[in-house]
Amino acid sequence: MMPSLRAAAYRLYIHRLRRRLAGAALPRHVAMVMDGNRRWARERGLAPQTGHRYGAEHLDEVLGWCAEAGIAHVTVFVASVDNMRKRDSDEVDNLMAMMENVIAHRLTRPDNRWQLHLAGRLDVLPDSTRNALKLAEETTRERDALFHLTVAIGYDGREEIVDAVRSLLDARARAGATIHDVAQDITAEAIAAHLYTDGRPDPDLVIRTSGERRLSGFLLWQAAYSELYFCDVYWPGFREVDFLRALRSYAARSRRFGA
Is residue 200 a known part of a binding site? Predict the structure, then answer.
């Protein structure tokens, strides 16, 4: 098929998918594991940092698709604690630079509609990255935003739960509670109130790119009843058609919330 005909067919298919989704039950909150940047670069004979750059820049486009679909909450998994500790230092430095120069910078533009929230162990980040992200979070905090982006960086789902329980215990101890009182106070709702994502809804749909079929510790508590969608393309190659297919799959499901 000629390139022009292929492009026309693609646009027609996108239009058909959008029409099919009109009036469908769409997720309020989509979480995404942006996986495959390095493999995408390797297949093209490029350096890993090039893949990270394309991946960071691509987030801007994906957020546009989410906003157009009326999805008010998006959470993205950027890097785990293990990523920060075990990967080559040059690669980690480059990824952090992408976070500072692409994501944090773009979110603070006056025309950006997204309010930034952070989730994770920010103490494992380089000072410059931590400061840039905190500044972006502060800058967007007073924004009258319809859309909320949570960036999970230096994140581990098990550590989040441990931190939440520790925070709950510390709070009750400072209030003078006894061990017996504390034991009575440990409920699912009490723990959830101390998670990194407190105040934001649990994800309805979790999308992971790259073909991997696992969550890798992402939102272990929050995604307990989420619908999961695994996409075979790498994150930099994640197209609008792939995104709309994920929404179509979600809309066709009957959510059971553990039943």
Answer: no
